Amino acid sequence: MNFASQILKPAFTIIRDKESKCLLVFIRGTRSIKDTLTDALCAPVSFNHNTVSGHAHRGMDAAASWIGERCIPVLRKALYQYPDFKIKIVGHSLGGGTAALLTYNLREIQQFSSTTCVTFGPAACMTLELAEFGKPFVTSIVNGSDIVPTMSASSVHDFIAEAVKKHVKKHKHSWLPKSKGENTHTLSDNLGEASGSSGTWFLPLSSEERLQIESINDDAEYISSNEGSDNIDDSDDDEEQLLNQTGNHEEDSVSQDTTLARRRLYPPGRILHMITSQMSENSNSNHNDADEKHVCLYQTPTQLYGKLRFSRGMIFDHRTKKYMNNLQQLIDKLEKSDSNIVED
């Protein structure tokens, strides 16, 4: 059986594999606008498990519940016919996060308590305690610079906040008001700098010219003070109100930051990271394979994926084809090493 995708309803199919004696539930990743809308519903919602509680990606939680309602009757019927079969949930990207949450739900049912899950490039979909709890039965494969496992409301919020902070810090000096003397010196300095850069020579400002500039500044300050003198009380009230509003916004911002940090989402379960590297020149490979790359697999801590990491390959490394190619290299490498052990 299979279902086409809709909003909060990703495409999935159920397959019976007699060779491996498994009932496989495959959940597709983002491929349509409807899938993208499911991704966009990323606010953390409460996710309660029999053993551990936390928060999960809202769209994927809803998708997992929808798929569960439709696949549970089918799986029960299949297990009745094939009682020695195991259930495995598999997904990529959006499908990976949904697959993990579905696995948590299924394992609460006695008949499906041995369900396991494998995800590829899963989206960040659950808080840290939930992610760590799933290590015995959820395996997540991450390829190279794939950015999706690090993307969540918290990580995007942190990135924007950091970018704004750096921008403000960089331009803070240019926003500060300058005194009369500073304005005079700055103007003369700028004229001198402009003369040097444009190729036209200007004479330095004389004492009389400096006095004229200071007089202009005095007049401007006098006009400004007179214009504002009639509304001093109103201005003070407005400033006080503005300061109060700013204080409230800062409190709300701090509260929001704390909530987001507490509900930061991570990829699920045990994480295995595929890294592609250049073959060593001292390796036993043939000269013709000097440019060949090989894939290594590392187990990495969950906390590593709580922050956005940008690189040139962050989108390309998320593609299904890239995952398949690197996984095939790993399989070939393992088969080759096994054959060498047998020969020895």
From TrEMBL:
The keyword Mitochondrion belongs to this UniProt entry's keyword annotation: no
Residue stretches of biased makeup (Acidic residues): 230-240
InterPro entries xrefs: AB_hydrolase_fold, Fungal_lipase-type
Molecular-function GO term, any one: hydrolase activity
Sequence segments annotated as region (Disordered): 172-198, 220-240
Keywords: Hydrolase
SUPFAM superfamilies, sorted: alpha/beta-Hydrolases
One matching Pfam family: Lipase_3
Keyword Cell membrane among record annotations: no
Comp. bias (Polar residues): 184-198
Residues in Fungal lipase-type domain copies: 25-153
Example GO biological process: lipid metabolic process
Annotated protein name in UniProt: Fungal lipase-type domain-containing protein
Source organism: Phaseolus angularis
Taxonomic classification: Eukaryota, Viridiplantae, Streptophyta, Embryophyta, Tracheophyta
